[in-house]
Amino acid sequence: MEQTEHPLRFSPRYQAFLDFAHLAPEVDATSLKTYLFFLWVAGNFFTAQQEFYKRFDLSEGKIVVLLLLQQAPHHRLTPSELAEAAAVTRGTITGLLAGLERSGLVKRSEHPEDGRMFTIELTSQALDLFEQILPERFQRIGQLMDSLTEQEQHQLVTLLEKINRALPALSDP
User: Cα dihedral sign for 95, 97, 98, 102?
Assistant: First the structure.
């Protein structure tokens, strides 16, 4: 895989890593460059997504909570149900809910079956926000993916699946 003029060449952050790797002759330079380029693109992808959400005073975590509530019966779940469904800690969900509540997108209500508990439910403001944000988000995703043919998209998914299966190599002892 030849990557002669990719942006990493100009990034001191990644160049320092490459320079250090050259001291170890067993390092596969192509693999390392591909890995660093993937990290760079993933970082740019995440930054672009966060910039979009920031326009609406949202984050990835807040969007996940809102979507989970939107799909729940009566648009309502307990904080522990939300934490479990979002795969985050109760502390994280508490922070996300506090921000969403301040924004007027969710409200706390007494639990219908257990007065000691409460539920979180979407407000009409949140439902209106979905009508505004989701069509634009889907359109932008479509524009991004239009840079690839359908065959290239399938190839990308296949490659990402392979990388995902190999991820333990980065963290397993």
Answer: positive
Confidence (pTM): 0.73
pLDDT band with cut points at 50, 70 and 90 for residue 59: very high
Gap between the Cα atoms of 9 and 15, Å rounded:
7
Domain 60-123 CATH (choose: 3.40.50.150, 3.40.50.2300, 1.10.10.10, 1.20.20.10) = 1.10.10.10
Give how far Cα 150 sits from Cα of 44, 82, 160, Å. Answer: 23, 35, 15
Residue 83 contacts residue 90 (beta carbons within 8 Å):
yes
Pairwise CA distance, residues 19 & 100, whole Å: 45
Query: Cβ neighbours of residue 26 under 8 Å, at least 6 residues apart?
Result: none
Confidence of residue 3 (pLDDT cuts 50, 70, 90): very low
- Please say whether the beta carbons of 69 and 77 come within 8 A: yes
